[in-house]
Amino acid sequence: MFALSINSAVAASSIKQLDVLGQTVTFTLAEPKSHQVPNCVSAQNHEKWAVNLNSLQGQAMYSLLVTAVSKEQLVSVQSAQSCESISDIEQAKALSLMVNSTIASGEHAALYDGTGVKKVGKIILTNGNNTFYYVPVSGATEGKTYTKFNEIDMYFIDSACQGDAFLSIRYHSQVYYSERLATHLVIPEGDNRENSLSSQGAKPVYLYSVSQGKCIDQNRIASSYTRWGETKLQRVAHPVCGDKPCIIK
Which domain of life is it from (predicted)? Predict the structure, then answer.
C-alpha cells in the first residue's frame, strides 16, 4: 500500500458515510474512533468528522474522500482537536488515502520539474482542479501532493502593477505562480508587520485583476489596508518544481 496524504495522519478505515451540508462535508469511518475526542463533540455526533469546503485544503480533502469512496480505499484522519465547521462535530485537520500498489504501479502520467527534464514522480490521482497526487521516484512509500496555484488578484503600489506584490495572510500556506511576473510567490513565515501593505503609508494602491487583465487604481492609500493583513510576497523557487511550474506529461 502507498499512503497518499495531505498531512501526517493516524488510524485507517473505509468510509461508512459521506454527506455534503452546504459548505461543510461530514463523514463517518467504518472503524470507531479510538482517540479522545474534543469536549465540543456531542454524543450523537461522536463518530463524525467535518471538513470545511471554503478552503483549498478542505476542497483537497473532500476530493480524497470522494476518491476513497469510489475506489474503495482506506483513509486515515488527523484531528484538529476542535469543532470549527459544525459546533458539535470534530474537525478533520488532515487526511491520508491508502492507494493500492497495483494502482501506483500502473501506467500513469508523470510529474516533472519546471524544466521538463527531471522526473519528480508518477501521478496516480488528480482532483481535476490543478491538484495532483503522486508517488515520488525517490522510492518513498508515502505519496505527495502538488497543487499549481495560478496567479490571483494581488495588490501593488506601482501604477503598472509591477515590483512588489501584496496579498492577504489568509493565503499564507500557498505558493502561487505568476506568468506575468514569471516567478513563484509566497507569503514569508513569521512576523510580517514590516512587510505589510499598510506600512507603505500614503502611497496609492493598485489591484491587478486577473479576470480583466489590467491594473486598476483602488482609490485608496496603503495605510488603510489593515483588515486582512495584506503582506508583501516573496519571490521564491518552488521546492519541487523550481523556477517554473511543474509539467505533467
Answer: Bacteria
Q: Would you state the pLDDT for residue 7?
A: 42
Whether residue 179 has pLDDT greater than 80:
yes
Asked if 125 and 111 count as a contact pair (C-beta separation under 8 A), the reply is: no
The span from the CA of 218 to the CA of 1, in Å, is 52
**Both ends of the chain: CA-CA distance in Å?**
24
High-pLDDT (> 90) share of the chain, %: 49
For the chain, what is the total number of helices (H) and then of strands (E)? 2, 21
Out of 31-35, 71-75, 157-161, give the one with best mean pLDDT. Answer: 157-161
Which residues, other chains included, contact 20 with Cβ-Cβ below 8 Å and sequence gap of 6+? 53
Q: What is the three-class DSSP state of 15?
A: strand
State if pTM tops 0.70.
no
Q: Contacts by 213-217 with C-beta closer than 8 Å and gap 24+?
A: 215/156, 215/159, 215/160, 215/161, 217/159
Cβ neighbours, 10 Å, residue 7: 12
Return the C-alpha cell found at 112.
516533472
* Alpha carbon distance 25, 86 (integer Å): 10
Which one, of 123, 78, 96, lies nearest residue 3 by Cα?
A: 96
Task: Give the separation between CA 226 and CA 231, rounded to whole angstroms.
Answer: 10
For domain 2-99, give the CATH number: 2.40.50
Query: Which amino acid, 143?
Result: G
